[in-house]
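Translate sequence into structure tokens.
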Amino acid sequence: MNGTNDKEAIRQFLEEQFGTVVEGQGAVSIVGLTHHAHSGDVLLHAMSAKGGGPHWGKPEPMAEVIDAISVRHARGIAGSGSPAQQFQLSVCRGDSGKPVAFLPFVRLGAPSIVGANGSLATESANGVGAQAQGMRLLEVLCQGAFASLGGLHSSQQSAIESRDRRIAELEGENRALFVALRQELERSVQLSHERKMRELEFMRTTEERRRIIKILPALANVMTGKEVFPISAEDTALIESLCENVSQEEIQMLTTVIGQRSPELSALMLTRFRSIQEKKIKEAEEIQAIAREATGRTYEEAERDAMGQPTKALGE
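Result follows.
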């Protein structure tokens, strides 16, 4: 842009002035263009309602004329560096001839150095002009710096707001995912517990049936009062039941007591108990194999899981 308040700003200023009638002042009567030189103000152009003309009252063509005159005039003035030339657009209303509205703007001059005498430059080629030009340069730099900071702050604020919105969205998604996972975990735990209880029930039922079948010969003979099963089978069932319901220490104590009276009988009983123990271990292994085949878990594993004790998965 050539200076400040470009042609569009001049057009808007004139449009506002012609579109407004101030009470006590009347309508726009004179529009003047002035250049502020260091030697004094210079009137460059004037338009009036009395003089008329094809452009009067039309902001667009009037702005074209005023901008062209100010640019042409500034280019013809030399100074230090690229001197800024100060212009001012003045508006008079009614018959007073006194300006009541102003629009200052700047256009750039020729980049050369001339003496102070006879120069029309806004900043004269002396110490005062250099100070004025330095002040103007400082003003331009400050305006640019603050405008840049304002844009940076606006961009940072927009980025922070976007980040906060994204964080809120992610927190909402995480919360929904956590609730869904918790519900699925609860359902999985419930299904696992129900499966373990069924497994445990299967194990217990199988064990109870095995024990009932063992003592069935003795029960049948007692209940019927007849020898439905051979006495040997009944004795075997009773001895096996006795062996299963006493500990190894109790068996050792029993054989010791009997051994005090009959060492031979004690040795026979101990041999018999050991045979039954071996048979019991073998039957337990068979039951575990059946349970593993039916449910994929042994009796002990199912019982530990039902009690909440940790166990390794099969195959690990």
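Note: Confidence is low (pLDDT under 50) at residues 113-118, 309-316.
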